[in-house]
Specification:
Length: 760
């Protein structure tokens, strides 16, 4: 494999300092030119895109926009809770130095829960609404009607703007988020997935159509590496009349300050064998540790288990005190310790907002070397930008080193043609041509049934505006979104489908008694009952269509026939659960679990954390210990996970009604196997779900698709279908993976009511 390795020297990077500050920014002292450019361009532009490299002050660049409307509120969307904490402190510092009147409040789910219940209720939605309405309502130390900078994450922003809070609060919160903020800052948005980008782009389109840009709203997008699909969406917005300014901090050749050292980069194909790769990684780390004891380095990998395995191996080699892990499950205390270690082992958690700060601060770069893997271009450039940062350092000319492991397909797609003398430009241009580094799903997701996602806020807004002049803007907003995402159905199509889904969601939650009483008056209830009849009783549907019967006749049917009522409720549960992943922000099938790790298999110092349930099942032995699950050891062999579905009818019935269909399955359980044998799994209540959403496909006829998706990180699981006349194994794509899979690879698939899946 060594003959496939490529070595290239990436030249040092510099960024322009500002020669003269405008009076409004005089408090900034040594500002960078891109920070001043953001301030100046935001006078006229609606959206300001700051493309300065990572670690060069984009946060303060975005905050300069506040100076144009110093008494108006703002929201800052940071991609992770760890970054919320960091950017809250940065905003407080900026506000103080800029002499702005704002109060800055962090608003993760945990933060909101901790806010006082004294003056408002205990509901998180009620607290959030009151803080936006008047911060003094919740925080007595804040003056009345003080403008606020709310620092939150994409989850809360999405739930707020897509009417996903509970019925009591959703309208108030959505209205506040849509109307309250004059400055909106999206940080590191290149790391957003398809759903997060839907939420962001919806907000931008809304701001255009409802004339918020005309009335002074400014949106700042901070990213070093914008995705091509998102670039296209922004271009479509520009064609719709949005004024967009792009700022590149590296343009210009005056007043340059060194920002990153030269990087001697080696590109390697990622080995297929996990054991081979981990041995190679460990050897590289140990060699650097022993030959360069004064240098600091890091390893960044996508897999938590690979990081944990590497940590165990290095500890066995005597490096225990010199290494620390920064991972998703690692609590703050563990991360703070790890930051001071000579060697940091990290997952994608550090892709956002981690500067690898050290105390005392070195005179040269904080990271001298970096070893990392990258599945896509955004991750590659984000991670390579972590090594050799020297902005503000006194020693700036010591080269850094990096090893990057890319998908092996990159070599087949032409990476070997890289001009290794061409530096960063040659590398960037070539990486742009490699399909294996594309981020999957963005366009496929937007153009598929997932486009229905935007119908929920559109329908809510339409109903809020009913009878008002602004109601006509809903169709304009839909058409703007349709042009951005390149959708292919009408608003009438999506409105009806959304009403149908809303009816299913409501009926699924109601008791049988309530359904009998008022199903006709539930929003979407009548539409859903029509769909129920069409899917389950074709002959009755023909009569209904022909006018031989009416929907009113089903009022008595559901009152008198308990079986029909039960079947209606079950169909509503299946229908709404099938679509639920589309409207949930998290793509995991099960919730993370509270665990104890007293032996340090996952954590370095702390003993308690939250852990992904599938990670626990695959890589750990554990026991239930009260409210916690205690990890007792690493699994000696990685467990294979599969599902078993007990289907009450015959196999042919399953084929005709459940295969190649987005739906949800009951009587389904998860199984661990090793060496081909089923292994006992401790009972975990959180893993017992009444219905599991997803899609089941044939592994033989779809082998190529399954292989390709697996290489892109989209996991499917074996599922054994146990019918009353035979057993057979298929593949199960769970949750959001099911929807994404269909969007990306299939055309002729069905929805829960047997309608055709909308594919782009």
């Amino acid at each position: 494999m060594s003959n496939q390795r490529l070595v290239i020297r990436l030249e040092p990077r510099s960024i322009s300092a500002c020669a003269s500050l405008p009076d409004e920014l005089s408090f900034m002292g040594n500002a960078l030119q891109h920070q001043v450019d953001v301030f100046e361009q935001s006078k006229d532009a609606d959206i300001i895109l700051d493309l300065a490299p990572t670690g060069t002050g984009k946060t303060n660049a975005g905050l300069t926009v506040l100076k144009h409307q110093p008494n108006k509120s703002a929201v800052y969307i940071a991609p992770t809770n760890a970054l919320i904490e960091q950017q809250t402190e940065a905003a407080k510092k900026f506000v103080k130095e800029a002499n702005l009147p704002h109060v800055v409040k962090s608003a993760s789910a945990k933060d909101i829960k901790s806010w006082s219940n004294d003056k408002v209720g205990s509901r998180s939605g009620e607290k959030l609404y009151n803080v936006l309405r008047n911060p003094a309502t919740v925080f007595p130390d804040v003056g009345a009607n003080t403008p606020i900078i709310l620092v939150t994450n994409p989850d809360i922003f999405y739930y707020a703007t897509f009417f996903a809070y509970n019925n009591l609060d959703r309208g108030n919160i959505a209205s506040s988020f849509y109307t309250k903020f004059s400055t909106v800052i999206f940080d590191e948005f290149h790391l957003y997935d398809a759903k997060q980008l839907v939420g962001m782009l919806f907000y931008l389109a809304y701001s255009q159509v409802f004339r918020f840009f005309e009335n002074g709203r400014k949106v700042v997008l901070l990213t070093a590496t914008p995705e091509p699909a998102c670039e296209l969406a922004l271009q479509n917005l520009k064609q719709a009349g949005v004024k967009i300014a792009r700022i590149d901090g590296e343009v210009g050749n005056s007043n340059l300050l060194p920002s990153q050292t030269a990087v001697n980069l080696e590109l390697r194909p990622k080995p297929d064998s996990k054991e081979e790769w981990l041995a190679e990684l460990a050897a590289e780390v140990i060699q650097r540790f022993r030959e360069r004891p004064d240098e600091n380095g890091a390893v960044i990998l996508d897999s938590l288990d690979n990081i944990n395995c590497l940590s165990t191996f290095l500890r066995q080699q005597g490096l225990g005190d010199d290494i620390g892990r920064i991972t998703g499950p690692a609590p703050k205390k563990d991360r703070q310790r790890a930051m001071q270690c000579q060697i940091i082992l990290a997952t994608s958690t550090v892709d956002v907002g981690f500067n690898f700060e050290r105390h005392p601060e070195p005179k040269r770069q904080n990271l001298d070397w970096l070893i990392f893997s990258a599945r896509d271009r955004a991750a590659f450039w984000q991670r390579i930008g972590r090594v050799g940062r020297v902005l503000g350092k006194s020693e700036t000319n010591i080269d850094s080193e990096a090893i990057a492991y890319l998908p092996a397909d990159a070599w087949e797609e032409g990476l070997t043609s890289l001009d290794t003398t061409g530096g960063r430009t040659a590398l960037k241009n070539l990486l742009e041509t490699l399909p294996c580094l594309d981020k999957p799903f963005l366009k496929a997701y937007w153009r598929s049934e997932a486009f229905l996602e935007i119908a929920r806020p559109l329908l809510e807004l339409e109903e809020m505006l009913e009878g008002l002049a602004e109601e006509k803007l809903i169709l304009e907003l839909f058409n703007t979104l349709k042009s951005i995402f390149e959708g292919n159905r009408t608003w009438d199509d999506y409105r009806y489908r959304m009403k149908l889904l809303r009816g299913a969601e409501t009926i699924a939650k109601k008791t049988s008694k309530d359904i009998k009483k008022d199903w006709k008056y539930i929003k979407g209830g009548q539409a859903f009952v029509r769909t129920f009849i069409k899917a389950k009783f074709p002959e009755d549907w023909d009569d209904l269509q022909a006018g031989r019967t009416t929907l009113d006749e089903y009022v008595d049917l559901f009152k008198e026939d308990e079986d029909a009522l039960t079947e209606l409720k079950e169909f509503a549960e299946v229908f709404s659960t099938s679509y639920a992943p589309l409207f949930n922000f998290r793509s995991t099938l099960f919730e993370s679990l509270s665990i104890r790790d007293p032996h340090g298999f996952i954590l370095d110092e702390s003993e308690e954390t939250k852990l992904d349930s599938f990670h626990l099942l695959r890589y750990c032995e554990f026991v239930q210990n009260g409210d916690y699950i205690e990890v007792t050891s690493r699994a000696t062999e990685t467990y294979q996970l599969s599902f078993e579905l007990r289907y009450t009818d015959n196999w042919q019935e399953f084929i005709s009604t459940e295969l190649n269909k987005l739906t949800s399955f009951k009587n389904c359980q998860i199984i661990r196997t090793a060496g081909g044998a089923i292994r006992p799994t401790p009972l975990i209540q959180a893993l017992s779900r009444h219905l599991l959403p997803g899609i089941i496909i044939c592994p033989r006829t779809n082998a190529a698709v399954i292989f390709q998706l697996n290489k892109q990180g989209i996991v499917s699981y074996p599922i054994t279908i146990v019918c009353n006349d035979m057993e057979k194994e298929y593949r199960f794509f769970s949750g959001l993976s099911g929807i994404l899979t269909m969007a990306m690879k299939f055309k002729q698939l069905r929805l829960p009511d047997d309608e055709v899946f909308i594919a782009g």
